[in-house]
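Lecture notes, unit on protein representations.

Consider one protein chain, 396 amino acids long.
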Amino acid sequence: METSLNWKIPFSIGFVGSFIVLFLLVFLRDKFIGLADNKIFNDFYPIFVILIVINCAIATYTVSVYYYRIGKPGLKGARGNYGARGEKGPSKKCDITSHKIKRFKLKKVPDPEKYVVDVSVLDNATLDLDKARIIPKWSTSNVRGPTDVSKSVLGTTVSKCIKNEDCELRENIGVKELRVNEETGEQDIVRTNKPFNGAVLTYSKNARGDDGDIHAIQFTYDKNDKVLKKSKESELIEDYILENGKIMKRDGRIGLRNNKGTGVDFSCPPHSALYKVETLHSNDTKNKSGGIKGIKFHCRDITTGEKRRLLNENNDNVYEAVYGLDPTPENREYNYSSTQCPNIERELYNSSEKVKIPGFLANLDAVSGADTGIQAMKFNYCSYYHKNPKEFKYTE
């Protein structure tokens, strides 16, 4: 490797040289002025000196930075092309029939140490097979029925675009996963109760901040069956359907099919999910279908129910992620709607104690069109995480 000049050498030369130039220009002023013999040059001589010194400083900086950068190792580049094939080496006789003998000699004789294992702790120990078979589970059950939040419609309840067939109603948009059937070895579509933990969306907002639109949304979920404290594996919601014995995949996005406005994505922190959504929406007009103008998402911890901060599009740590217009009940121009999953209480098997379990949004219907955007959303039920489903009992 070629050795480059140390950047400190040109820096030192330039630094000292600048002071020498300054010294000469100041102490030989009369000589320079006499050579020029110009009144304007005499009047502007101080400015001339300052410009010369600044140019020396810039030259010193430029040369020093150049040698600093070429002497600093850069990022590893891409793998180059393979070279030409080398010359054939000398032939060797491959003898696989003669007997080979190799002897191994120990360099050190092992000296086993005696140790005692205390087995007294196993006298009263039992193996809990039930505990070993515990599988975490997402459930929609509240006592004996699903927790219903479907009465809260986010958006216009009646839109003329359905009558005009410009938009459609899509039902039961939730987490569907492809899993291998152990008996048949083929893939099956499995609908799970995993909640939404984020979304990818496009939106617009005018410069005044008093109008906006949510064009499209596709929710995400955590692929892990067991919820982890410090990590997650987010995946986009996809809609799998069975047609003529074949599994087909449809886009899980609702709203416009073309990219319009600003595209963003957000995600709840690990070990949290969406539990509350707020929106502003407009009603139908003579020439246009109503739609969602702004949306706000809230996250909370899966086991404690504590609100969690998330990163918005500006990389700020906030409790709510807002896109489009900020949904507030005080807005008088558009209609405000919200939906929120409640907590439930479950009684333990081994005591009368009740445990509070927070709920999360897990399934929705949507009215949307490829050209009309999103008219309305309705979350159908909430999902609850049971780390150990066997510790709870159902009551009539």
